[in-house]
Design goal:
Elements lengths: L2 H18 L8 H4 L17 E4 L14 E3 L15 E7 L5 E5 L5 E5 L9 E3 H11 L3 E4 L4 E2 L12 E2 L6 E9 L7 E7 L4 E6 L14 H4 E2 L3 H4 L4 H9 L8 H8 L4 E7 L2 E8 L5 E6 L2 E5 L1
Antiparallel strand pairs: 1-3, 1-6, 2-5, 3-4, 4-5, 7-10, 7-13, 8-9, 10-11, 11-12, 14-15, 15-16, 16-17
Protein name: DUF5117 domain-containing protein
Keywords: Signal
């Protein structure tokens, strides 16, 4: 089955079970570990766990936490200094509209949930700590094109970085909370050339919106891809250069371009083609026959 379709199916199944909250038995172990190295848990399964309040983006510092209220003080928006505070999830209301939390000194907090039944601006502390234990000082291989090097706490920092880094080895030099619960783990990375960059990733799917773009497994290899994919040197030369050529396989195109926006099945002249469609940075189509690229447009 096409990898993109399989990703979307698993993500949809997880999201559906996540929204229902009581259907944990419907999740297979493969679904629970598909997103990243850590195991997925529903919100109900995290009752009793500690959540960490994520740092705010620099533009949100004055307004505070729109989805987190300090019940004890009456603040409808928890102030910026709440960042980093550990809150224990005590309960979730029956309609999954909010969760009740308490800090170490007994102050009460309430977090609103979204339509996807998740808490914004907080993340399970266990996921961040487990990711730190698992990934700190480990070597990974990048599976994206642009390594961000700007300030990770300023959204404009995501516009600064270096291009064409796919398959480059990096070392994880720090693991910390990010500014978004959609990809709550901030990995600080160091390339072999000494360049420091970062990536926001989803390591388990717990309390995230299940965006495949953020999945750890879609962003990193844990082994050198050249030892995983046994291609001739000439093919690897084109892959590293980001050049799709005639005769390449769907797997090779995906390594270069990432997952396509969609794959169309085209039947014409008694033949069945697969058309891999990409929309960014510009429209591109790769038509495959018998598993090989026959036309690029």
């Amino acid at each position: 089955m096409n990898r993109l379709i399989w990703t979307l199916i698993l993500s949809l199944n997880i999201s559906l079970c996540f929204a229902q909250q009581d259907d944990t038995e419907k999740l297979t172990e493969e679904q629970r570990t598909y997103i990243g190295p850590l195991r997925y848990r529903t919100l109900k399964e995290t009752i009793g766990e500690t959540y960490v309040v994520l740092p705010l983006d620099i533009d949100d510092m004055k307004s505070g936490y729109a989805f987190l209220a300090n019940v004890t003080t009456g603040e409808k928006r928890a102030i910026a200094s709440t960042a980093g505070k550990h809150l224990k999830l005590l309960s979730i209301d029956d309609d999954f509209k909010y969760g009740n939390f308490v800090d170490s000194v007994g102050m009460q907090y309430q977090a609103k949930t979204s339509l996807l039944k998740l808490f914004y601006q907080v993340a399970p502390a266990k996921d961040i700590e487990d990711a730190r234990q698992l990934l700190l000082n480990k070597k990974l291989w990048i599976n994206f094109l642009f390594l961000k090097t700007g300030n990770p706490y300023d959204w404009r920092g995501a516009l600064i970085g270096i291009e064409n880094v796919r398959f480059e080895p990096v070392t994880v030099i720090n693991v910390s909370p990010s500014t978004t619960n959609g990809a709550p783990v901030l990995l600080t990375l160091k390339t072999d050339k000494g360049i420091i960059g970062y990536s926001f990733v989803d390591v388990s799917g717990t309390n995230t919106d299940h965006d495949p773009v953020a999945y750890f497994k879609n962003n990193f290899f844990t082994k050198d891809p050249q030892t995983i994919y046994k291609y001739p040197a000439a093919v690897w030369k084109n892959i590293k250069a980001g050049k799709v050529t005639l005769g390449m396989t769907e797997e090779q195109v995906t390594l270069i371009k990432g997952e396509p926006e969609r794959v169309n099945v085209v039947k014409t002249g008694g033949k069945v083609y697969r058309d891999m469609i990409y929309m960014e940075p510009k429209y591109q189509s790769y038509l495959l026959l018998n598993g090989k690229v026959t036309l690029i447009k």
